[in-house]
Specification:
The protein is α+β, with helices and mostly antiparallel strands and 142 residues long. Helices cover 18% and strands 36% of the residues. A 6-stranded mixed sheet has the order 3-4-5-1-2-6. The longest helix is centred in the last third of the chain and has 13 residues.
């Protein structure tokens, strides 16, 4: 039996390497609320494959890279549970949260945001003006 999960990536200037470390300098987030199936909802501290988050071939398109030293896995930082009232046909949900660095600038940042937006990820730009501009450009282009 499989479960449907969502994934949110919180981008930080300095993401912590382990589940107990503190990430510093929040930048923005991107979320896909129900785009994944898994054998179980991963727990805090478990590993989530970075390859699962690829939208295209790694060497051809930008991708969400784990913090330095973590490849090929992201460490699950938080698991958010969304129970639904009885009779709600959407069923319960869970969103797994990982931390990463953006790692792109300029046109490459715009391509990164656009590629993930086109694949159904929702951008929450936070304090980053560059990501806000790229997310707005992706919204108006799509």
């Amino acid at each position: 039996m499989t479960v449907t999960i969502g994934i949110r990536v919180d981008f930080w200037e300095q993401p912590a390497l382990g589940p107990d470390g503190e990430s510093k300098g929040y930048v923005c987030s991107v979320v896909k609320e129900d785009g994944f199936t898994a054998l179980a909802v991963p727990a805090v501290g478990e590993s989530l494959s970075a390859v699962s988050l690829l939208v295209g071939p790694m060497n051809e398109k930008p991708y969400i890279a784990p913090p330095q030293g973590g490849y090929p896995f992201h460490i699950v930082r938080v698991v958010e549970h969304y129970p639904r009232p009885l009779g709600d046909d959407r069923g319960p949900g869970a969103i797994v949260v990982v931390h990463a660095q953006v790692g792109y600038e300029g046109e490459r940042l715009e391509e990164f945001v656009r590629v993930y937006a086109e694949a159904g990820w929702h951008w929450m730009p936070g304090e980053s003006r560059a990501v806000s501009r790229a997310a707005e450009a992706a919204r108006t282009a799509g």
